[in-house]
Write a structure and sequence with these properties.
662 residues; alpha+beta; Leucine-rich Repeat Variant; Serine Threonine Protein Phosphatase 5, Tetratricopeptide repeat; Cyclophilin; 8 strands; globular; EC 5.2.1.8
């Protein structure tokens, strides 16, 4: 996932009661400091030295700190190596699993997990059996899931008997199985164990991990477990567990009771995120059983739910009249929901298709909102007969770049339609060449991606690479990295050669601005004033100094003022900060990833990227826990108030300004 993909993812809690809540937390260690308390770097040159070595990806410079007598430096060095992710540090980190201090042990385990070196598997498993600290054991179990081999998965499934009732161990086991599942490592025993961990008697961290593992591990058949998963989806007290279980039910769709459960969740669950998950779990096979619930959801009080319902009809509606969708669209107020229903109308083969197409084109001409115009072009992408209209709209001079971006994406989607005329294949190739030579980074990147799409078979029509090389050489790095990547990948594809390594900017091109960092208090707040209301963030300067320094500098420059949220995915993220407004914009520098020991829970604020160490100015806020982003995208802030505003954000909503407050 990168910045353009984002257009199209730990509080230390007392080990009493729910002992493993930190497994689903995004918060940094609790602090009693005031907003004016200096951060940890302000008076400690050694910590700045460790962070600088992390930023420079200098594992060799960090290794000596692992042997320092000061606990803080050993811990910070281990956490720094979690961002560097060099296997040259594996043996030194394994040695720290024996450290006298539990916080160092859990930092070392976290770093080993981030490195994902299978040679650490045996040491992690051995440590689990002797570990005396519950938190460290949880980290070691999760790290084992990131490092385990397929042969060793069984050791993670079967906890030692002495740990059978240890709440931290149960949570660690569940997260370990989740991490292994994301890597494609699972088994019937692992699935059975996850279903057990989903049970209501287990700690919330274990239930959340189990629900997400069942939802996100590929190619699972969960029909035998439909009853247990359905119970969790309907009865768990935690909305995020219910949401994950609802998603998992999509893999048990063949079970007779599942459609009714999903329909009930869509109608009745009190949390909009669960309703979204239920709608997304519905499929074409259950269409007739759930469509009444989906019809009702089109007018849900939460626009994210309504959009998920519209997307359900676009993907799965069969034997419906296009006119029916047109009539429903005309009664819908939220423009994004309406445009998606219009897309569903055009998707249906019907005699009224021409009239529907005309209605969409008229709405496009009348709209003054360029994001709505983009979505209407996206709707027209369902109908190849709209090819000339969309082509003209895409390349109209002096229009907002957002319209052209959506337009070319619509043309590519149109080309994928099974009824796209063969007579237009050559003209479509000309359109892609025009996009590559447009000097617009979004059109260049989208067109290049389409040219290398093997399903479109464009090698015959566009065999030469000269125009792609010409366009690539006009780009400026690192600002135009994503367009460069797309063009270079297409050049390599057409030449049938291995992929060229992406040129990632080094730390020397934009080092951490320590003057800014030392001026940011440990409790620094930022208020994002939007057209929907205010969102207050706490900047995590002690966990992500380079990222926070960049955000603060851009904020002081007024960079974010007047920008838009250009991407909002229901029950996932709201993303903004793009200077173009379409996700293809960037600053003229890249940052290095800072993978602190933080989790993507509700309200985590992360930096979008085009791969490790390519972060820039775009950021996103999560609607709910999204653990598949953990350790892959920098978290630099946390929402402390205004999540109700975040839940109402939609594409095109304005960032009036961002202010630093104390």
């Amino acid at each position: 996932m990168n910045r353009t993909d984002f257009r199209r993812a730990a509080a230390v809690v007392a080990l009493t009661g729910c002992a493993t809540l930190l497994a689903c937390s995004t918060q940094p260690p609790a602090t009693t400091t005031t907003a004016k308390t200096p951060n940890k770097f302000a008076a400690n040159a050694t910590l700045r030295q460790i962070a600088t070595a992390q930023d420079e990806r200098n594992a060799a410079a960090l290794l000596p700190f692992l042997a320092q007598p000061e606990v803080q430096y050993r811990r910070e060095a281990a956490l720094a190596l979690a961002s560097v992710q060099s296997k040259t540090a594996t043996s030194a980190l394994v040695a720290r699993l024996q450290d006298d201090d539990a916080s160092v042990r859990h930092a070392a385990a976290y770093a080993l997990g981030q490195t994902a070196d299978t040679t650490a598997e045996a040491a992690l498993y051995q440590r689990i059996n002797t570990e005396t600290d519950a938190t460290a054991r949880r980290y070691e179990l999760e790290a084992l899931g990131r490092c385990t081999s397929r042969a060793g998965l069984g050791t993670l499934v079967r906890l030692p008997t002495v740990l059978a009732t240890d709440t931290a161990a149960l949570s660690g086991q569940a997260w370990g199985l989740y991490r292994a599942g994301l890597r494609g490592l699972t088994s019937e025993a692992a699935v059975s164990r996850l279903v057990q961990l989903l049970g209501s008697g287990n700690p919330v961290g274990a239930r959340l991990a189990a629900a997400n593992a069942l939802a996100r591990t590929r190619s699972l058949n969960l029909v035998p477990y439909a009853a247990a998963i359905g119970m969790a989806a309907q009865q768990d007290v935690n909305y995020a567990v219910r949401s994950g279980a609802a998603t998992a039910l999509g893999k048990a769709a063949a079970a007779p009771a599942v459609p009714a459960i999903l329909a009930t969740l869509t109608r009745r669950d009190p949390d909009y995120r669960v309703r979204v998950s239920a709608l997304r779990a519905m499929n074409a096979a259950m269409y007739t059983q759930v469509k009444e619930a989906a019809w009702a959801a089109l007018t849900d009080k939460n626009d994210q739910v309504a959009l998920a319902a519209a997307e359900f009809f676009l993907a799965h509606a069969t034997d419906e009249s296009g006119t029916l969708f047109l009539e429903k669209a005309n009664k819908i107020t939220p423009w994004r929901v309406r445009a998606t229903v219009l897309a569903a109308a055009l998707h249906q083969p019907s005699p009224e298709r021409a009239a529907i197409r005309g209605a969409v084109q008229e709405r496009y001409a009348a709209s003054t909102d360029f994001y709505e115009k983009g979505y209407l072009l996206k709707a027209l992408g369902e109908d190849p007969a709209a090819f000339n209209f969309v082509k003209q709209a895409t390349f109209t001079p002096n229009q907002p770049v957002v319209v052209g971006t959506y337009g070319l994406e619509a043309l590519v989607a149109m080309r994928h339609q099974p009824d796209f005329p063969t007579s237009l294949h050559s003209e479509f190739a000309v359109v892609l060449r025009q996009g590559v030579l447009s000097h617009d980074v979004a059109l260049m990147g989208i067109a290049a991606e389409a040219i290398r799409d093997p399903k479109l078979e464009l090698r015959r029509l566009l065999p030469a690479t000269d125009f792609l090389e010409q366009a690539r050489d006009q780009l400026t790095l690192p600002r135009d990295l994503e367009a460069w990547q797309s063009l270079q990948q297409t050049i390599d594809f057409l030449r049938r050669r291995p992929a060229t390594v992406t040129p990632v900017a080094s730390a020397a091109t934009h080092p951490i601005n320590w003057t800014v960092v030392m001026d940011v208090p440990a409790g620094q707040r930022a208020v994002v004033r939007t057209s929907k209301g205010d969102i207050t963030l706490r900047l995590l300067v002690e966990q992500a100094p380079g990222s926070v320094a960049s955000f603060v500098e851009l904020t002081r420059q007024g960079f974010y003022n007047g920008k838009n949220f250009h991407r909002v995915v229901p029950n996932f993220v709201a993303q903004g900060g793009c200077p173009r407004g379409d996700g293809w914009g960037s600053s003229d520098y890249n940052l290095r990833s800072e993978f602190a020991d933080l989790r993507y829970g509700e309200g985590a604020v992360g930096l979008a990227s085009a791969g490790k160490d390519t972060e820039s100015c775009q950021w996103f806020i999560t609607h709910a826990p999204t653990p598949h982003l953990d350790g892959r995208y920098t978290i630099f802030a946390q929402v402390v108030s205004g999540m109700d505003v975040v839940s109402r954000l939609d594409i095109g909503d304005r960032i009036d300004r961002v202010e630093l407050v104390r």
